[in-house]
Amino acid sequence: MVLAQPAVVGEVPVDPDAATARRWLQDELTDAVYHDRPSLLERFVSWLGSLFDGVSVAGLDGLWAALVVVGAVLAVAAVALYVAGPVRRSGSARRAPVLAEDDTRSADDLRAAAAVAAARGDLHAATLDAFRAVVRRSEERVLLDPRPGRTAHEAATELASRLPTVAPALARGAQEFDALLYGRSSTADHALYVRTCELDDAAAATTPTLPARQGTPLSVGAP
To answer: How many C-beta atoms lie closer than 10 Å to residue 193's C-beta?
Structure first.
């Protein structure tokens, strides 16, 4: 009786050694199927280009048009953010009161505080208090009503009709006050401090002009 020979399973070992397993992995990864699939970035770029199919920008089609449009949008957004910062700070400065509601110091007290700050080298605080003295002195002279929340810009505008000869200096002083208070100007120098003190002195020495009922200007002597 002839016995059947056992079938040959094959030449591939069932339990390959490390070198054989590494070779199998390399052979598998060289299969084209692994290289035909686009990467995540390639799929995103393809999707972005599909959004602009049929769109032409200066002779550019598809993906290039998409890149141009996206670049333009990013540029506009950057400009908007750059401009919005100063605009917001400017708006905040115009709304902030020049004198805090709990600040009860007189004009002379404010000038004294300004002088002390200047003596210790803090010209920033000195200039701010010097301009506050301008506003407080105007309230003491009844040129401004003691209204909480008045801004430097509002004070300069209201005083312009009562002290027209110093109106330009008042407007400039208000702008410089806001710039210092809200960081648009980081430092104050001695010249700015002196100019603000001179504004206070000039406003105090100016005879205010108030409109008469008949429209004739009426000069009121300075105190």
So the answer is: 24
Q: Got the DSSP string for 69-112?
A: HHHHHHHHHHHHHHHHHHHHHHHHHHHS-SS-TT----HHHHHH
Residue pair 139/146 in contact by the 8 Å Cβ criterion: yes
For residue 207, the tally of other CB atoms under 10 A from its CB is 11
Per-residue pLDDT at 9: 47
Spatial contact of 223 and 160, defined as CB atoms under 8 Å apart: no
Among 179, 220, 221, 210, residue whose Cα is nearest residue 196? 179
Tell me: pLDDT of 85 over 90.
no
* pTM, rounded to two decimals: 0.56
- The tens digit of pLDDT for each residue in 115-143 reads 999 999 999 999 999 999 999 999 999 99
Task: For residue 95, count CB atoms less than 10 angstroms from its CB and return exposed for 0-12, middle for 13-18, buried for 19 or more.
Answer: exposed
- Based on the number of CB atoms within 10 Å of its own CB, is 97 exposed (0-12), middle (13-18) or buried (19 or more)? middle
In terms of Cβ atoms closer than 10 Å to its own Cβ (0-12, 13-18, 19+), residue 159 is: buried
| Positions of E strands within the chain | 56-57, 60-61, 209-211, 217-219
What distance in Å separates the CA atoms of residue 209 and residue 223, rounded to the nearest whole number? 13
Round to whole Å and give the CA distance between 34 and 96: 65
Residue 99 to residue 97: CA distance in whole angstroms? 5
Q: Tell me which of 20 and 10 has the higher pLDDT.
A: 20
- Do 134 and 152 contact (CB within 8 A), yes or no? no
